[in-house]
Amino acid sequence: MIPDEIVERVRSAADIVGIISEYVPLKRSGGTWRGPCPFHQGKNPNFSVSPSHGSYHCFVCHESGDVFTFLRKRLGLDWPSAVKYVGEKVGIEVIDVRIRRADLPQENMAATYRRMETARQQQAAQIRAVGEQQKRERIAEADKEVTITLATAQETADRTRGEGDAQRTRIYAQSFGRDAGFASFYRSMQAYEASIGQGDATMVLSPDSAFFRYFERGPGGAR
Ligand SMILES: [Zn+2]
């Protein structure tokens, strides 16, 4: 984009008659210059150039414009080239700031966007990694707790069972040692247990069986 100020300076400094007359034979007619219209290939001087207005106009095909328009339409120049072309003739440096003002920011924006995208992806990856790590830590922690709980439970159970076994053995030993009645009862119960241990079985107890005798007398009631 060429700043308007430069365009206006070039336009007002341009010798529109001198430039157009390079392509169209012009003859002075009062305040204007006339010639055959190059746009509709006219033979008569219907093409008028006004140096005071800095414009041209065809009374037949109504083609009109300024010096830049003429160069664009007659020579096929684009707008910046037309302004530069005239600027060179009048000694004004025409700076197309489009490259500096539009293209570079565009590049910068793309680069900035790429940087943002990269940073965002890195951040996301980092968050995922941290999340994975935390998840692994939590699972490990939970596993550890389960292991500890199981181990503790196992240990407690083992100890309890061990204690129970020891206690039972101790009680039996004490009972067998000092209570013949209980020893007799215990042996009877073991015999009953063995006989009814499997399958359906009916236990018929005699009123004078060791079982009843034991309960009649109570522990330690052997005689
Ligand atoms: Zn014309």
CATH topology descriptor of the domain at 4-90: DNA Primase, Chain A
Q: Note poorly predicted spans.
A: none
Shape: rod-shaped
Radius of gyration: 58 Å
CATH top level class name of the domain at 4-90? Alpha Beta
Task: Please tell me the overall pLDDT.
Answer: 77
Question: What's this model, at a glance?
Answer:
With 223 residues, this protein is an alpha+beta fold. The chain is built from seven helices and five strands, in the order H-H-E-E-E-E-E-H-H-H-H-H. The site of zinc ion has 9 residues, from loops.
Describe the structure.
With 223 residues, the protein is an alpha+beta fold. It has seven helices and five strands; from the N terminus they run ααβββββααααα. Among the domains are: 4-90, DNA Primase, Chain A (Alpha-Beta Complex), CATH 3.90.580; 101-155. It has helices at 4-13, 16-20, 67-75, 79-90, 98-178, 180-196, 210-217, and strands at 27-29, 32-35, 47-50, 55-58, 64-66. Strands 1-2-3-4-5 form a five-stranded antiparallel sheet. It starts with a helix and ends in a 6-residue tail after the last helix. The mean pLDDT is 77. It binds zinc ion.
Features of this protein?
5-stranded antiparallel β-sheet, alpha+beta, DNA Primase, Chain A, 7 helices, binds zinc ion, 8% strand
Structural topology:
Elements: H1 4-13, H2 16-20, E1 27-29, E2 32-35, E3 47-50, E4 55-58, E5 64-66, H3 67-75, H4 79-90, H5 98-178, H6 180-196, H7 210-217
Antiparallel strand pairs: 1-2, 2-3, 3-4, 4-5
Helix pairs in contact: 1-4, 3-4, 6-7
Residues 37, 39-40, 42, 47, 58, 60-61, 63 line the site of zinc ion.
